[in-house]
């Protein structure tokens, strides 16, 4: 039976795990998924920031229901914490059918001076934790009833395509996220799991504070963006709902750039 247009984008009855959802792009995505009908499981380092939780709790959806919101704490720089996450969440009975891996960190040093400890931390948080969570929640989704068993949305970057400056670890991690997205998609697309990524352009968040505060670099970046502005977290709400919903059911292994036209320049 064909779905109506609103049904294609509805996430009613779905449950989404979101990392990095306490701020920036991840927070906007978590709120958008909740607005579309999903219940949300936020993965946070601690519970000192409850802004996203409180925003979601304040929502009253078109069906007059309020989304359920849960917080699980984990340090994504700890491989042990990450490995334990999916078993903890699934053991509590959560039927997870959406995963968004938005958490990420940045370290800036000239390449010839880049510390190995910073390299290892960035790769663990930005890439290895993504692999682990995709693997573990993907394994669960494979056992869900089909034909659409789940949606995985990784957050890539313009540095998935470009090398960047003074960010060799970040660029390597985000290049890895793009390839990891394609690798999982190759195995799971035929089994009802859509694996895609969003590659943000230059977005006015605290991760880009060093660039924003560099007057020359900020001006150079803005001059290249055809849209004439930096992005903001709300620009990612629509793309995330699309990739999480049945509207994108035939979209697999895609790295969707949301960059104001930067890559087309």
UniProtKB/TrEMBL annotation:
UniProt-listed Pfam families: adh_short_C2
Entry keywords, A to Z: NADP, Oxidoreductase
GO molecular function: oxidoreductase activity, acting on the CH-OH group of donors, NAD or NADP as acceptor
The keyword NADP appears for this protein: yes
Keyword Oxidoreductase: yes
Family: Belongs to the short-chain dehydrogenases/reductases (SDR) family.
Protein name: 2-deoxy-D-gluconate 3-dehydrogenase
Lineage start: Eukaryota, Fungi, Dikarya, Ascomycota, Pezizomycotina
